[in-house]
Amino acid sequence: MHARDIMTAHPRCCGADDTLEHAARLMAEEDVGEIPVIDAAHHVVGVITDRDIVLRCVAQGESATLGPVGKYMTAPALCLGEDASLEDVAHLMASQRIRRVPITDGEQLLCGIVALADLEKTDARSLKMKVAERVSAPH
Known about the structure:
single chain, alpha+beta, CBS-domain, four-stranded mixed sheet, two-stranded antiparallel ribbon, 7 helices, 6 strands, 40% helix, globular, CBS domain-containing protein
């Protein structure tokens, strides 16, 4: 099984010049905690997470209404190709302590995203448990 088999295809995304408010609204509409940030050619340049917004903006006393995504996003984004195995996805999540991985096609364009919850939908539940333990462990 590969990333393309479990990914959410064509995820909502935003640009670095979009506001944090826009990114947060996308998160609320899609019920997700991360939005890929792309350039005009659909290459992933970063990701903006609910945690990025809270810790890098709100906790610093800045306004999420006007702040540009590019100022607060996590960059570069850690991506994998759509042919990556589930083991590769799980290894990246566990080693980097991340819950979501943007997926790119052969031209390095955003084509999907795999979340920790997606591993639960597969026969790779044991991988999900190992990743969840690692991602959730205190630093």
